[in-house]
Specification:
- The chain starts with a helix and ends with a helix.
- The protein is an alpha+beta fold.
- The chain is 37% helix and 13% strand.
- A hairpin with a 5-residue loop joins strand 12 and strand 13.
- Helix 8 packs across helix 9 and helix 13 (338-348) crosses helix 19.
- It has a five-stranded antiparallel sheet with strand order 5-4-14-13-12, with helices on both faces. A three-stranded mixed sheet has the order 2-1-3, with helices on one face. A three-stranded mixed sheet has the order 9-6-17.
């Protein structure tokens, strides 16, 4: 009696004092965006950021409407916001159990909670009931059921039966049968614990409970329920309606302005699927080396269109961090920044293509009586080497000597001009280790910078949507020729031979410039390179930061880069790279002259050019290479990271 009086008072306050509300004024908004590749081929359909796809009640199958009512609120059409009978039954059950084992929330109350969430307190519950009473007074039962069906949580961050039906079955909510309807109606009871992918057995058991409730609610359907009990409901693979490039599609959908239902991307669908397959295949061979993840970026040099974007081996493998995006993840780049240092050194006159560099043991003093001793992964030194060999073979000591001459601050400024926006610390933070990968960057930033290298220092934004306007090129540096000299050195297989051997996956049957990198403790391997037409950037490592073993840039990310490059040019080989204006390739020799080589020298220089030597000063006091608190603060270990 007391309960009835309290409810009556609450109803009078909510409806008479405040007024009824039509639930349709709170209609949820939702839409889908279809993404297609550059030729119009479907890449996938993404439900909007609210993961909701509301539909009218007449587009929800009758079996599903029945299942929702039978499961959540069997007396839905006969009570107000609160079902007094359900309240008493829940109270009795909870008293007998000595704990809360049963609730009494009705469909109107759940709709009110979805519209206006409140704290789980006594006053919060009373506020919820008051809003539910106003909705009941101002709405039809069909409108309330429609509102509930479009807002109910369905697991996997999905809201509403339409979004869930499309995600789990690949069909509209209007087309589900009774067995599928029962499974959908089971989910709101515990969207996490009944997740179709994580807990399929629990969901099947709960579905049987729902079917039993349907049989009790509608006895005329018992024969149909019996058939539904025997039906094996198939959940489609967890693709969320995505055919290819899921990382990019979800990224574009999150940034979408909401005006378009169809977006044409710059992705080449065939190339994208090939890249995804190669990522999985290459990782299968590298599993014994502890490699678990990889990422790929393929770019058209002429347009800066992104043709392939692979963020991980499987976006939908949540257990293995598949949703992490290796294209955008910050990682240490190893030696992949060295080409930009050498270009800056050429441009500033700190180095000439004919220079030689000393690859000998050197130690730099650090605070607290420590020393920084750069060395190569192999532990060997080559003595005096040409600049071409030092860059092509990615020798560490020569690179540190070059950075010492150029200066860390000017090099850091140049990297930022090239779009490495995550190098946010000052020069003293990075020290001489900057050229060996002491900072952090992304595959996206690396790919964009290498496109600039391929385009004579012209930096442009990358395009992922067909309607993105071409960005204006911004010149980085003052001499186009110095960029072309670096490209020529990176494309020289003989310059790579001392470190990588006479034949490796970096050697292609057509002109290609390439650089590898390996970060601290073998945590990341990179291979980034380009032909005249395409740039391919690849990364292999582990999102969690676990180290690999017996792997480097050439053996980790290199095979993936090689496969993509060969595939891109299987129908047409690229042309040669442009020659640097103002330079001529001439014979050079040591003094005394024992061996002739050919290298770029300024036009008009003497016919026989002796090389200039660039040496370090042995042991010197220089800024800290990496702060002690930074990841991988073992300085010698950092110094060995390169290939």
């Amino acid at each position: 009696m007391a309960v009835s009086i309290a409810l009556a008072v609450l109803w009078v306050f909510a409806v008479v004092t405040v007024g009824p509300l039509d639930v349709r004024t709170f209609a949820p908004h939702g839409r889908t965006v279809e993404f297609v590749d550059r030729t119009g081929g479907v890449l996938g359909t993404v439900i909007d950021r609210d993961r909701s796809l509301p539909v009218p009640l007449d587009r929800i199958a009758r079996p599903l409407q029945l299942a929702l009512v039978a499961t959540e609120d069997a007396r839905f059409r006969y009570h107000g916001a609160v079902d007094g009978i359900a309240v008493l039954a829940a109270f009795a059950s909870n008293v007998r159990a000595g704990r809360i084992v049963r609730g009494a929330s009705t469909i109107p109350m759940q709709v009110a909670r979805a519209i206006r969430p409140v704290p789980a307190t006594v006053w919060g519950k009373l506020s919820e009931i008051a809003l539910a009473e106003r909705l009941v007074a101002g709405s039809s039962r069909d409108a309330l059921l429609e509102a509930y069906a479009n807002r109910v949580p369905m697991g996997a961050d999905l809201l509403g039966v339409e979004a869930a039906s499309r995600a789990y079955f690949g069909i509209a909510a209007a087309d589900v049968d009774l067995a599928q309807a029962a499974m959908l109606a089971a989910l709101p009871n515990d969207p996490v614990g009944l997740d179709p992918y994580a807990h399929p057995a629990a969901l099947r058991a709960r579905t049987q409970v729902v079917l039993a409730r349907i049989a009790a609610f509608a006895p005329a359907l018992r024969a149909v329920v019996t058939d539904a009990r025997r039906e094996r409901v198939t959940i489609r693979p967890r693709t969320d309606g995505i055919v290819a490039a899921p990382h990019l599609l979800f990224r574009l959908a999150a940034a979408d302005d909401g005006r378009r239902s169809r977006v044409r991307t710059t992705i080449d669908g065939e190339l994208q699927r090939f890249a995804e397959t190669q990522v999985r295949d290459v990782l299968g061979g590298l599993a014994v080396h502890g490699a678990g993840h990889a990422a790929v970026l393929v770019i058209d040099n002429a347009t800066c269109d992104v043709l392939a974007y692979v963020g991980s081996p499987d976006y939908f493998d949540v257990e293995h961090e598949g949703r992490n995006d290796g294209v955008q993840a910050l990682r240490q780049p190893g030696s992949t920044l060295k080409p930009f240092l050498y270009e800056l050194a050429f441009e500033r006159g700190a180095l000439a293509p004919t220079s030689t560099l000393a690859d000998t043991r050197v130690a730099y003093a650090l605070p607290n009586a420590r020393t920084y001793e750069p060395a190569d992964f192999s532990g060997r030194f080559y003595g005096d080497v040409r600049v071409r060999t030092a860059l092509g073979s990615s020798l560490n000591v020569p690179a540190v000597r070059v950075l010492e001459r150029v200066g860390v601050a000017p090099f850091l400024e140049r990297l930022r001009a090239l779009g490495f926006s995550d190098l946010t610390h000052d020069a003293s933070y990075y020290g001489l280790g900057l050229t060996l990968g002491g900072g952090e960057t992304t595959l996206w930033q690396l790919g964009r910078a290498y496109v600039a290298l391929a385009n004579d220092g012209q930096l442009r934004a990358l395009r992922t949507r067909d309607d993105d306007p071409p960005s204006l090129a911004r010149s980085v540096g003052s001499d186009r020729a110095t960029w072309r000299i670096v490209v020529d050195m990176l494309a020289d297989r003989y310059a790579r031979a001392p470190a990588f051997g006479a034949k490796s996956v970096l050697d292609l049957p057509f002109p290609a410039a390439v650089k590898t990198g390996t970060s601290s403790d073998l945590r990341d391997t990179w291979t980034v390179g380009f032909t005249k037409r395409y740039t391919v950037a690849t990364w292999v490592g582990n999102f969690g930061g676990a180290a690999m073993h017996d792997v480097s840039g050439v053996s980790g990310a290199g095979p993936l880069w090689n496969r993509l490059m060969l595939h891109l040019h299987e129908r047409e080989e690229p042309g040669p790279f442009a020659q640097p204006g103002g330079y001529t390739k001439r014979a050079i020799c040591d003094d005394p002259c024992r061996e002739l080589e050919r290298e770029y020298v300024a036009s008009g220089a003497p016919r026989l050019q002796p090389p200039a030597r660039v040496r370090g000063a042995g042991t010197r006091a220089l800024p800290l290479v990496r702060p002690p608190h930074a990841p991988g603060a073992g300085f010698v270990v950092h110094a060995r990271d390169r290939r």
